[in-house]
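I am still getting used to backbone structure tokens and would like to learn alongside you. Would you supply a protein for us yourself, any chain you care to pick? Start from the sequence, derive the backbone structure tokens from it, and show both lines together. Go ahead whenever you are ready, and we will take it from there.
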Amino acid sequence: MGSSYPYVDELRRAAEELYPQMVNFLVDLIRIRSYTGEEAEAVERTLTELRHIGCEKVWMDTAGNALGQIGEGRPLLLYDAHLDTNEISDESSYPFPPLEGQVVGETLYGLGASDCKGGVAAIVYGLAILGHLNLRPPCTVVAMGATLEEEAEGFALRSLVERDGLRPDAVLIAEASDLTLRIGHRGRCEIRITTKGRAAHASVPEQGENAILKMIPVIERVEAMGQNLPSDPLLGQGTQVITQIRSPNTPNSVPEWCEITIDRRLVAGETVEGLFRQYEEALAPLGAKVSLPVQPVRTHTGLRLDDLAFFPGWTIEESHPLVQAGRRTYELLWGRAAPVRIWRFSTDGTYSAGRAGIPTLGFGPQEEQYVHTPEDQVNLRKVKEAALFYALFPFVYAEIFDQKEV
């Protein structure tokens, strides 16, 4: 295990001793409905648990995130896992009632188990293991039960950093990774393209200008653009797809406007300005207007965080000290090399890494195939293993961080 970390076996024993308590906490979270913007009860339950496990400081920030801190000094590590969930579409399609929190063997079924309440339990009980052993980390560690992620990745984290002034040296995101390290993902944004015509009665179409017909060459140009989108050696090529087309709801009139919506998946380094310029230069000659919509966001505390619906992609080099600390922690715990991959979906890393440039790493117990499906579930032993990782990681990273600072 390495002589620098003689307490690894103690961490394992503490994780096992706290296992029933961790399961009870996670079951409680599953039983709380916490759709985006409606997370107040789940936040309060998380704050209660953070106090119970002995965090030195527990608070809710202005955006309504639940936060608990242990240790002090640099580096400041932020553990991020979100409390909000997607909405239930058809309860009858779930094998168990989605808000029941049914445990079968070592598997917990329920809404948000895989995205991302299993991750919340992992980061909270990473801190709980240290508290149980009275083992203080050599740095500051903050666990964050985040809000708003399902509809506006990173908006609540941005508020914590930019409004409340807590800027971490590194962020670990406990989204679904099946106990592997994740070093990036593509971003996303929504683009709207509008053509203008002139309304007229459908009985005299020659008196109008049909905005739908004007959209035809625009769509052809957009499709051609899709063959030459930016690419990244790790994330692959960006993609785009036209997902909606709209016009006035007047079937007996020549439409005076037509709008299409494009879902654009972004590689690392793409910016709002560059993206807008790319589409405007291609489509303005066809008389089309390009716009990026604003994402309306209201927190459960009533705070407005509206901003452009632009969520950057990001990567981190495998040679980065944060990734090396993740590898070392993994090897100390399980005696083998850590698998390193990328995510196919988006996370709060769109802000921490994509916008704020904060080194970010992913690691969580949940499995991606269950995210946003009626089979939503998490393996409870994997949650315990993830908590163990989060308990050990501050010691490993602080040692590497100190060497880097020197």
User: Anything to note?
Assistant: The longest helix spans residues 380-405. The mean pLDDT is 96.
